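Lab notes, practical 5.
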Amino acid sequence: MSDTQPGGQPASNPVPPVPPAAPSEQPAAPAYGAAPAQPKKALAITGMALGIAGLVLSFVPFLGAILALVGLVLSIVALMKKQPKAFSITGLVTGAIGLVIGIIVTITVVWALGAGVDAVQQCMNGAEFVEIAGQTVSCSDVNY
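Output from the prediction step:
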């Protein structure tokens, strides 16, 4: 087979590469640098969100205290990892307040339920009157 192209024309020799241009007098434009790294803020935002949720739900026994505790811990970790302070401190404050309120509410509800269960147990054992939180209640008034 010969070095011919379609149409019967001989193939031309390859063109030699063009030598690089002479350096110009003007400096090249500076290249754009990479964008500055954005600080990671997932822990701080999550801590803040859980802290706020824990504060809002602190009047729900157990749930509010648990959410506030997790938000508090995440906010502390975010502060240690140098994440955005505003989010972390907001989560820290709301989580701490929510945790205190949540613990008080949870203890109060558990105490009230315990007193109520004890009173019902006494009525079931045949008592006519029981004392609940300083008030005397007739067992005939209690439906159990």
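Observations recorded by the TA: The radius of gyration is 38 Å. The mean pLDDT is 82.
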